[in-house]
Amino acid sequence: MRRAAVATVAVLTAAGLLSACGYGSKSEDKSAAAPAASGAKLSADTVKIGYFANLTHGTALVGLKQGILQQELGGTRIKTQVFNAGPAEIEALNAGSIDIGWIGPSPAINGFTQSGGKSLKIVGGSASGGVKLVVNPAKIGSVDELKGKRLATPQIGNTQDVALLNYLAGKGLKVDPNTGDGDVKVIRSDNKVTPDAYKSGSIDGAWVPEPTASKLVTLGAKVLLNEKDVWPDKKFVITNIIVSQKFLAEHPDVVEAVLRGSVKTNAWIKANSDQAKAVANEQIKADAGNALDAAVLDPAWQDIDFIDDPLANTLQAEADHAVTAGLLKKPNLAGIYDLTLLNKVLKAAGRPEAADAGLGAK
């Protein structure tokens, strides 16, 4: 019975670790919305790209909408697919339905480890930050008042769930990672329903990514903690770029073009922040059906840093936090990164190379 229970928990945990923080539509083919391909084709006729209709995937949103990614790919056509959560995107990558994807660290870790290191590689960074602990100020005035309260995270074992459990443990507060019961009640709630849960009073706060955090603030919540403040240099990975190992081996020129487009997109975002914010919101409306209100969009966008460095040292730390929380057996992440093409692109742009924290291609 004990073995069966452990196995059940392992399955649930694996599903949670594959999750990410979607805020858009269901998985859907959006190829018709992609800019037209023109010029010489690379080694593949088509590259299938997955992402979320979420601000933390702003590089993909802006790069696609502005045609920057397509420009780098020339005559190689982009076919896109929009996801709500990591499990579907990892499954799509494994099935060959997508070749490259923007995704959070926890699903990348679990997708790599569950395949024995054979399914994917992280080939680039995309975003840091954009996660906050927001609370009902009438019920929680400081971090010393968290005991006995109800806090939401997007899903068991996802990136924010791990971060909250790790933070609570550091404060001496005990929580069962599987049930969420303990000194603090951790409630796993889809980002789309968390605002309603807050309005109804069924939760007292949430550790969530943008734009959910800013949405809660518009409902009267206050920011108790920005996750940036618990990380060295205020940086931690929230979105990476992954590629199937098969596609990487067969079409490195296509992967390089996507990475070149990503780097150029991030540079454009930094130089044109307000315009980029509007462009990202236009793409969210196209993908999810509704644009974000300015009261949500503005603070959410401001808190996200779009970067090319995948911040490999923080990925290892996030995996260690999941182990500490009891949600993951210590994973072997050796070989999860292949930054060869990214560093080629960065070098050509006169930029410093990104480090893989000893977890590079073997």
From TrEMBL:
Its chief place of residence is membrane
Pfam families for this protein: NMT1_2 (PF13379)
Entry's localization field: Cell inner membrane; Periplasm
Which SUPFAM superfamilies does the protein's record reference? Periplasmic binding protein-like II (SSF53850)
Signal peptide start and end residues: 1-20
Recorded GO MF terms: ATPase-coupled transmembrane transporter activity
Q: What keywords is this UniProt entry annotated with?
A: Cell inner membrane, Cell membrane, Membrane, Signal, Transport
Alphabetized PROSITE patterns for the sequence: PROKAR_LIPOPROTEIN
Q: Which InterPro entries match?
A: ABC_SsuA_sub-bd, NrtA/CpmA_ABC-bd_dom
Its GO CC terms?
Answer: periplasmic space; plasma membrane
* Family that this chain belongs to: Belongs to the bacterial solute-binding protein SsuA/TauA family.
- Spell out the protein name for this chain: Sulfate ABC transporter substrate-binding protein
